[in-house]
Design brief:
The complex is a heterodimer of chains A (244) and B (294). Chain A has one domain. Chain A is 81% helix and 0% strand. Chain A contains eleven helices and no strands. Chain A is globular. In chain A, 46% of the residues are buried. Chain B is α+β, with helices and mostly antiparallel strands. Chain B folds into two domains: 30 residues; 262 residues. A twelve-stranded mixed sheet of chain B has the order 7-8-9-10-11-1-2-3-4-5-6-12. Chain B is globular. About 2% of the residues of chain B have low confidence. Classes of the chains: A mainly alpha (244), B alpha+beta (294). Chains A and B meet through helix 3, helix 8, helix 10 and helix 11 of A and helix 1, helix 4, helix 5 and strand 9 of B.
């Protein structure tokens, strides 16, 4: 893939990215023992080894990961515009579609890596600190982590479309965060509108665990994929027509 | 905008609509909508008779049992219920009657009727306020919040037609499907059930209720307390009233000695004589009456 390694290096060498990787790895490891101590004191088992990775995932997909994605998106689009880096890439003999592709793919890989790091460290924590760690729970967790990639990617592409209107990464980041929280709150106020937002599906792995493959889940999957293709197209259109 | 972009947008838009529609239609064909309608309908009930049964068993032995028949007249603000409680070692039968100006209580321990007078006006005022509070707008808001909170469970409700024309709704949740909040609150309740019982000895009816005698003798769970399974059933009749409810809650845990226990809480509630229940009053003439003050 042309330009992908270029984009990936730019992202991965950032100090903030490295810091986020480390935080993602340490968060479950630090939470595990404290949860264990607390549980022994009060006697309930809210988190056992089997479900610990799912609990961590539910925290990550709602608050933590969308923020990191918003940060990555605003760095890769308006951030590069701001620093005049984008012009250098655009003069290379690669089509704009390929450049756009490589950026999106780069964010997709970044998200995958984050999910993988959280998955591994939460499973390690579950195995070491908590009771009832099972292979079944590990498989189920892995499946849930994979599934969570889809709604998060849908949100990312949505943000990619919007942030290209901004000329500075900090403004784009602020806007993305506000936009995301609006999308989270809106379904509570207007349930009908909520159905049309990808945030509705942000914990959809729970649905898969509860029901397996059902018509509802299939419908939501079609919705998420078409949302991705819609905002990929719109985002690309923005990227192409823009003059740098 | 060129043709390619437009067509891509159009096709994705259509697919998106198709996806949402499929999901919504299949979700509403599950029992969730029926459940919601039936619960909303319950607000308009005037009177009913409720048969409530609750039992708690520990590793298969029943340790606590409550059964009650209550006649409720919400419009006339009257109710009468007879309750029997059995905690394994002691059992008690209670008779309660209440209307807008007095509460009457009798237990099978003695022949006395305990009567507590209410200042009726104050009572009526509170009722009025309550009714005013649930406006259609507020109901819609509550529904919206409820919908969002239960979105992952809505299509898990199975429906079944029963022989009598009613519809049975069923929701089964295994350990990993129960949200952490539910886990926490149920475990907390069970762990503190014995302490909760102590609160009941409040001086209602001059202490004559003596509910503290009837605290369930629960095994003292101290560690690994966990809700392992919840089964919920509902029965909706042809007028779309929720006439039956059943819940089985399974909790496992270990006591101080490390013995593991499985507690099963089993609740059923059946409503009948909807809007045709007449609450029969208690005739106090010739009976021993004890007047109790607040």
């Amino acid at each position: 893939m042309q330009n992908l390694s270029n984009e990936w290096m730019k992202l991965i060498r950032k100090r903030s990215t490295i810091a986020f990787f480390i935080i993602s790895a340490f968060f479950p490891i630090l939470v595990g023992p404290s949860v264990n101590i607390l549980q022994n004191r009060i006697g309930f088992t809210l988190f056992d080894g089997e479900s610990f990775s799912l609990i961590i995932l539910s925290l990550a997909v709602i608050i933590y990961l969308p923020l990191l994605l918003a940060q990555a998106v605003s760095d890769l689009f308006p951030g590069e515009l701001e620093k005049n880096v984008l012009a250098f890439i655009l003069v290379r003999p690669i089509s704009r579609l390929k450049i756009f592709n490589s950026k999106i793919l780069c964010i997709a890989l970044y998200l995958m890596t984050l999910l993988l790091i959280i998955y591994i460290s939460s499973n390690l924590t579950g195995a070491i600190w908590l009771q009832n760690f099972t292979f079944k729970g590990m498989l189920m967790g892995g499946f849930a982590y994979l599934l969570s990639w889809f709604p998060l990617m849908a949100i990312t592409l949505f943000l990619v479309f919007f942030v290209q209107w901004f000329g500075s990464s900090s403004r784009a980041l602020t806007f993305s965060i506000i936009l995301y929280f609006m999308m989270v709150v809106l379904p509570f106020i207007f349930p009908k509108v909520g159905l049309w937002l990808p945030t509705y599906d942000i914990t959809w792995y729970q649905r898969w665990i509860n029901n397996g493959l059902s018509m509802v889940v299939m419908g939501r999957a079609v919705y998420l994929l078409s949302w991705c293709s819609l905002f990929f197209t719109l985002g690309y259109y923005q990227f192409k027509k823009k003059e740098y | 905008m060129n043709f390619k972009v437009l067509s891509a947008v159009g096709i994705s838009g259509l697919l998106m609509a198709g996806g949402v529609m499929t999901a919504t239609v299949s979700a509403s064909s599950s029992g969730y909508d029926l459940f919601k309608t039936s619960v909303t309908n319950m607000q308009h009930l005037d009177s009913f008779t409720a048969n409530v049964q609750a039992s708690l068993s520990d590793n298969g032995n029943e340790i606590y049992q409550i059964s009650s028949v209550s006649q409720m007249d919400l419009k006339g603000d009257q109710s009468r219920s007879s309750v029997s409680i059995n905690n394994g070692s002691a059992s008690k039968k209670l008779e309660l009657y209440s209307n807008d100006h007095q509460d009457i209580f009798k237990s099978n321990v003695d022949e006395k009727y305990y009567v507590e007078q209410d200042s009726g006006e104050e009572h009526a005022e509170v009722e009025g306020e309550e009714k005013e509070q649930i406006s259609p707008q507020m109901q819609k808001d509550i529904e919206g919040i409820f919908d969002s909170l239960t979105k992952n469970y809505q299509d898990s409700i199975d429906t079944k037609k029963l022989a009598n024309g009613n519809t049975e709704l069923q929701l089964s949740l295994s350990k990993n499907e129960i949200p952490a909040v539910g886990q926490a609150s149920i475990s907390f309740l069970l762990k503190n059930m014995d302490q909760q019982g102590q609160d009941l000895e409040s001086d209602d009816f001059g202490g004559a209720l003596k509910l503290d005698e009837l605290i369930p003798e629960l095994p003292q769970l101290t560690s690994n307390i966990m809700v392992s399974k919840i089964d919920l059933f509902g029965e909706v009749n042809t007028d779309q009233y929720l006439v039956g409810q059943k819940a089985d809650i399974y909790v496992t845990g270990k006591d101080v000695n490390g013995t593991s226990h499985e507690l099963v809480l089993h609740l059923t509630n059946k409503l009948d004589n909807i809007d045709s229940t007449n609450v029969s009053g208690i005739d106090l003439s010739g009976e021993k009456v004890v007047n109790v003050k607040d």
